[in-house]
Specification:
The chain is of the alpha/beta class. The chain contains nine helices and seven strands.
Length: about 270
């Protein structure tokens, strides 16, 4: 068997098992050990992740259902997804570009300071020129994912450049029932996107919040839904099939990967 034939065999074997099943198997295998270690009363070690270092209390928040995730949790997990995207390039989509937690804030600041044409500071993201954030360049992406934070709530923005469309993947619509707050906050992005992408800016982009996106039954899970929706999209799986059980497994998966300092699907 040639090296290329072996590679195809491995890829086909990986793709026969869904990301959701891999997360479940990984969590079932590793979470009991990791949970015992992070909850050990005699141990409070610092673990160095991809973005920074964290103590046991940080991991307890990440691994405990209904615990609200901070920006550092979202950032660390997103960075891990980028690592997976590079490591498993034949399994994960290479046409999905994931932004960091600072991006939407930079968009808002740039818009407030200079309007929709003030995009120069954002082009490092567009061209994927930030060394510590190895996302896919936008000219190669069919989907752009943006973790978006409004006071007390996380959603994921799914930008579809070819359709001039922004989808708000929101697991708790009760936070902003009318959607007016989200529309106001996302409007600068919709106005600046054509200029960042170098396309016609005369046609207004649509912003939708699909009612079919799953609703969390447990408070405090919006950040994990945001992360899991990004992961499912990058793995070409249906994020609309998420539920609280899968979210708990995904929490444990992320916690184990960071604690063990190794993001893997095996």
């Amino acid at each position: 068997m040639t090296e290329e034939e072996l590679r195809r065999l491995v890829v086909n074997d990986m793709m026969s098992v869904s990301f959701q099943k891999r997360v479940r198997m990984f969590a079932n295998r590793s979470w009991p050990r990791v949970s015992a270690e992070i909850n050990c009363p005699t141990e409070n070690r610092m673990i160095c992740g991809l973005c920074s270092s964290y103590d046991s209390s940080w991991f307890r928040v990440l691994g405990t259902p209904a615990s609200w995730l901070t920006e550092t949790h979202i950032q660390e997990c997103c960075r891990g997804l980028l690592q997976l995207q590079r490591t498993y390039s034949h399994f994960m989509s290479q046409e999905v570009s994931l932004m960091d937690v600072d991006f939407h804030q930079l968009v808002s600041s740039a818009f407030n300071e200079g309007g929709e044409y003030n995009i120069e500071c954002l082009m490092l993201y567009v061209r994927a020129e930030i060394s510590e954030w190895p996302a896919i360049p936008w000219n190669k992406a069919k989907i752009i994912l943006i973790p978006f934070h409004l006071p007390g709530h996380w959603v994921l923005l799914k930008v579809l450049p070819n359709r001039k469309n922004i989808k708000i993947m929101d697991s708790d619509r009760s936070v902003d029932r009318s959607g007016k707050t989200l529309l106001k906050l996302i409007n600068p992005l919709s106005l600046m996107l054509p200029h960042m992408l170098g396309v016609d800016s005369s046609e207004r982009w649509s912003i939708v919040r699909p009612e079919t996106f799953p609703t969390q039954k447990t408070s405090g899970e919006c950040g994990v839904y945001c992360l899991a929706a990004a992961a499912y999209t990058m793995f070409r799986e249906n994020a609309y099939e998420l539920n609280d059980e899968k979210i708990e497994e995904f929490r444990h998966y992320c916690c184990c990967c960071i604690w063990d300092k190794f993001w893997s699907l095996d």
